[in-house]
Design a protein that fits this description.
It is built from one helix and seven strands, in the order ββββαβββ. It has a three-stranded antiparallel β-sheet with strand order 4-3-7, covered by helices on one side. A two-stranded antiparallel ribbon has the order 1-2. Pfam families: TonB_C (PF03544).
Amino acid sequence: MASAQTTGNYYNYRWEPCKPVVIVNFSVSEEGNIEDVYVSTSLHPVFDAIAEKVIKRSPKWIPALSKNRHIRSYMKQPVTFGQQE
């Protein structure tokens, strides 16, 4: 993301580095279990494996409701990587 400041008729941009992101798709069953995990937007095989592992190890999700019944839902979750400073 860039932030801009106005000085007269000119803009001064301060560019911030982009963070790597892996997009993981999966489904949430009627019981809230994570199923059918796969990477839809890949970064690198190592990062992809970490992102899949994080989603698979997450606790149970709250299942979607339709007509007052729990149903299977499909999710697309971005996993962002960064370094601690």
